[in-house]
Design goal:
The complex is a heterodimer. By secondary structure, chain A is an alpha+beta fold. Chain A is 24% helix and 34% strand. Chain B is built from 15 helices and no strands. In chain B, helix 2 crosses helix 15 and helix 4 packs across helix 15. The chains are: A alpha+beta, B mainly alpha. At the A-B interface, strand 6 of A face helix 10 and helix 11 of B.
Chain lengths: 366, 299
Amino acid sequence: MKIVFEILTKIFPSRNKKSGEEVVAVNDFSFTIPDGKLIGLLGPSGCGKSTTLYMISGLQKPTGGKIFFGDDDVTELTTEKRGVGLVFQNYALYPHMTVKQNILFPLQNLRGADKLPKKEMLERAHYVAKLVQIDELMERKPSELSGGQQQRVAIARALVKMPRVLLLDEPLSNLDARLRLQTREEIRRIQRETGITTIFVTHDQEEAMSISDMIVVMKLGVVQQIGKPQDVYDDPTNLFVAKFLGTPPVNVFNGTVKDGKLYIGEDAVLDVKGVSDQDVYVGIRPEGFIVDENGPFHCNLRSVEVMGRDVSVVSDNPAMQSAVIRSIVDADNKIDATAQTISYTLKPHKVFVFNKETEERIYFEV
Amino acid sequence: MTDQKNIAVMHSKNLNTEKVKGKAGKIIGKIIVYAFLILMAIIVVFPFYWMIISSLKSLPEYKLPNPTFWPKQIMLSNYINAFNTASLGKLFVNTMIVGIVSTILSLVITVLSAFAFARLEFKGRDTLFAALLATMMIPGELFTITNYITVYQFGWMKTYTVLIVPFLVSVFYIYLLRQNFLQIPNELYLAAKVDGTSDIKYLWKVMIPLALPTIISITILKMMGAWNSYIWPRLVANDENHRLITNGLRTAFETTVAGEVDYPLQMAAVAIVSFPLFLVFVFLRKYIMKGVSRSGIKG
């Protein structure tokens, strides 16, 4: 089921009636989510990603715009008629029901033509329980389950009525680090097996990058960029997206473009053809540095951290915006950790130039 | 046995070693605690004991200046007489009708209004709730006269209606249940919406089961309230057909001597009447405790 958003907007009225300020949670949202994919909605907290999810599920009504599931306009439909499954951040299992009753609950609410015979309900419940591997726990109460198990129950409950869309609100945030890795693989597997279009919300870029077919980066209710994780990482449209994706984060510098050359401080680090003379921000991915004695970019060396395969070099430069410059270079480089300075050559496709005012990307020819 | 223990206690004191001293202190502490508990238990049980033995005495024995602690002659016939003289059967039926109907209706009203105040969003909700709470500050006795005039003008005197309707709405129970409902996380409501439930079904399938201990407490309190009510029924419906058990017990046992009451018979009737409430408490004790302890933990 493909999902289409047309200029979707959500405005919350201000709590303080006197000031009359409104909060725009989602602003002019237009894009299409392709069928059968796993999509990560990514952004810092308060960027409107949960609101978007709630609007898809119908729990919140958009102030303007339309939502389509396939060709159906569902904007005016109530939640129960949309056929969505939603997994809440805190799972929201019914505490007084057993796992089995929890999973059966959505099926028992089906009415009219959709109503299922009891036997089929049980079969379906067992099918999804097997899918998420909780079929041993059917008679337990939620309080007798671990966090990871509760989450699986929540996913099973969302899947049991074969929803057109599966929505996950910060599905991994309540799990410990090890379980998080394991569960995100699970979510990927379940999504592949069922083929249900799945949208999940997260503020953890690594999580989104690792399992999504597509990511949507949001900031303050406005979509910044949509694309495959690798494409967005390699080709961010603005400074926010560049900063938000990647660990360690992108290194940002104040720079200047003059006569087709990019300067950081006094160093002309790169040729940037086709960019007019101006002050810019320069973003360089940690893997964009090549240690080179004769390199044009000079930094003060602070420390060298050996990580086995790679070496992480910490240095600084007067023009930098972040606290330090962190670069990841191949361990074959022999770096003298006692030296005062280090010089780099830059990989052009790992260097992004942004307009100083708008923070939009300025493209240059390599 | 106790002598031996006492000797042991004294003996251990004589030894006067730290360890034994500690042990003795523990035993003494226990003795004090248990003595206190036993004393309290006796104080609590005594009225019931007195009710039972009084109900088994003959009238002359009851009137002895020095009351006996055990009846000389056990008069089981008191119970049969009590049942017949007071037409206890009719009183029971009346009280049951009033108690059950008012409890059920009151529960429906309480649950629905608590749900509305906790869950639904409508204009003036909080103001309305505050107004309801404000009525709790007026003592109930002040309502008696206005209520009396109202029901008199409605022509409700000497009916079941007048015993049931004026006390259907209890702000306190609504408040209690609303607070309980508010503790149920909002996500459950949203989850239930996604799972395809209507508001009323969510109330029935999720909220009521989760608030069950409180609802049972309310049921018990309301039932006991109906069972024990005295002044209002006496004012508005103290006729043969609608008299409730409390008033029945008060008036039914006057002897041939004017103003004298046959207390043993009355006590027997009281014992009969108390029995159902006793049963309710025994069977629902678990829920009452649960309700109390749960609200304590959640805070």
